[in-house]
Amino acid sequence: MALALEIILLISCVIMTLFVLLHRGKGGGLSSLFGGGVQSNLSGSTVVEKNLDRVTIFTGIIWIACIVGLNLIQAYGN
């Protein structure tokens, strides 16, 4: 059980990292520093961004659930 949670945790970490990097910058952060602010008005639609937000939140919930599950397994044994 712990091995399965660790594998799911690893996969969700990689997927969540990719989804966060796909998000468009909203403000004067690093994305606008390298020219991302100019292209941000031309790329993507609001439906795609909303779906990306939903998938990112869902992946984050899976990630948190795996961490809590692994901590419970460690605390109370197999």
From TrEMBL:
<keyword id="KW-0811">Translocation</keyword>
<protein>
    <recommendedName>
        <fullName>Protein-export membrane protein SecG</fullName>
    </recommendedName>
</protein>
<keyword id="KW-1003">Cell membrane</keyword>
<feature type="transmembrane region" description="Helical">
    <location>
        <begin position="55"/>
        <end position="73"/>
    </location>
</feature>
<keyword id="KW-0653">Protein transport</keyword>
<dbReference type="GO" id="GO:0005886">
    <property type="term" value="C:plasma membrane"/>
</dbReference>
<dbReference type="GO" id="GO:0015450">
    <property type="term" value="F:protein-transporting ATPase activity"/>
</dbReference>
<keyword id="KW-0813">Transport</keyword>
<dbReference type="GO" id="GO:0065002">
    <property type="term" value="P:intracellular protein transmembrane transport"/>
</dbReference>
<keyword id="KW-0812">Transmembrane</keyword>
<comment type="similarity">
    <text>Belongs to the SecG family.</text>
</comment>
<keyword id="KW-1133">Transmembrane helix</keyword>
<feature type="transmembrane region" description="Helical">
    <location>
        <begin position="7"/>
        <end position="25"/>
    </location>
</feature>
<keyword id="KW-0472">Membrane</keyword>
<dbReference type="InterPro" id="IPR004692">
    <property type="entry name" value="SecG"/>
</dbReference>
<dbReference type="GO" id="GO:0009306">
    <property type="term" value="P:protein secretion"/>
</dbReference>
<dbReference type="Pfam" id="PF03840">
    <property type="entry name" value="SecG"/>
</dbReference>
<comment type="function">
    <text>Involved in protein export. Participates in an early event of protein translocation.</text>
</comment>
<dbReference type="GO" id="GO:0043952">
    <property type="term" value="P:protein transport by the Sec complex"/>
</dbReference>
